[in-house]
Write a structure and sequence with these properties.
It is elongated, with a radius of gyration of 32 Å. The chain is α+β, with helices and mostly antiparallel strands. It has two domains: 132 residues, Roll (PH-domain like), CATH 2.30.29.170; 67 residues, no CATH class. The longest helix is centred in the last third of the chain and has 13 residues. It contains four helices and ten strands, in the order αββββββαααββββ. Strands 4-3-2-1-6-5 form a six-stranded antiparallel beta sheet. A four-stranded antiparallel beta sheet has the order 7-8-9-10, with no helix packed on it. Keywords: Cell projection, Cytoplasm, Cytoskeleton, Repeat. This is Ef-hand domain-containing family member c2-like protein. Its main location: cytoplasm.
Length: 226
């Protein structure tokens, strides 16, 4: 019967294999966020940046990726801390962040950014439990004032959906002869023998259809779209 015990981080003298071999491609993954405080803005004063923190068991290195937020248009995302060992923020510290520093509810400071860990994947939870480490439940992500402001602004500028209401006979007859007429032109000179075409664009209110006529030659009207 083999005397080999289940492997854990900080192998000690139990397992003779090197950590880089035992834990090859084993990664702990945490959901997290950090706050970016702003000054001089009336509608919002903080931005919540959601990130993934990866801890590589084979060598104790850490990688941080900021997740893309569609409401953070124009803000950076992607890898913000490349894979490396990270020292504690205390000045002159020679100690590095380790597996015992990472758990839901913990705060970790990487290069001036304070990250709050709020969740982890199933493998991470089971791995920490095997070490005898209790892993709390998921913590909700705080409200992002910046995203809220952007969302509200988009809702104000978004055209409301057209109501598909039924028209009465009187309304139909009233709109039957109503149309909007626009003059336009089509520059076709990039093509051989192309010319500038004078167009007549007609919008029919009754059924919301469009008709386009080429009226370049007064005695020869051509229907382009009907």
């Amino acid at each position: 019967k083999s005397e080999r015990k289940p492997s854990v981080y900080a192998l000690g003298e139990v397992v003779k294999l090197p950590p880089w071999l035992v834990f090859d491609k084993h990664v702990l993954a945490f959901d997290s966020y950090y706050l970016e405080k702003l000054h001089g803005t009336a509608s919002y004063n903080v931005i919540v940046h959601r990130c993934k923190i990866y801890f590589f068991l084979e060598d104790g290195t850490i990688k941080v990726i900021e997740q893309k937020n569609p409401l953070h248009d124009g803000l950076s995302s992607g890898c913000i801390i490349h894979r490396q060992r990270i020292r504690y923020p205390a000045e002159g510290s020679e100690d590095f962040y380790d597996i015992l520093d990472l758990n839901i509810g913990n705060d970790v400071e990487f290069f001036g950014k304070l990250f709050r860990l709020i969740d982890c994947d199933e493998f991470t939870r089971k791995f920490l439990n095997r070490l005898g480490i209790f892993v709390p439940d998921k913590i909700p992500l705080p409200e992002d004032p910046f995203s809220k402001m952007v969302k509200e602004k988009k809702q104000k500028t978004t055209k409301p959906p057209r109501l598909n209401k039924k028209m009465t006979l009187d309304e139909f007859l009233c709109d039957a002869n109503r149309k909007l007429t626009f003059y336009a032109y089509w520059d076709d000179r990039d093509n051989e023998n192309g010319i500038v075409h004078l167009l007549l664009v007609i919008y029919y209110v009754v059924d919301e259809t469009i008709e386009i006529k080429d009226i370049t030659e007064k005695d020869k009207v051509i229907n382009i779209l009907k």
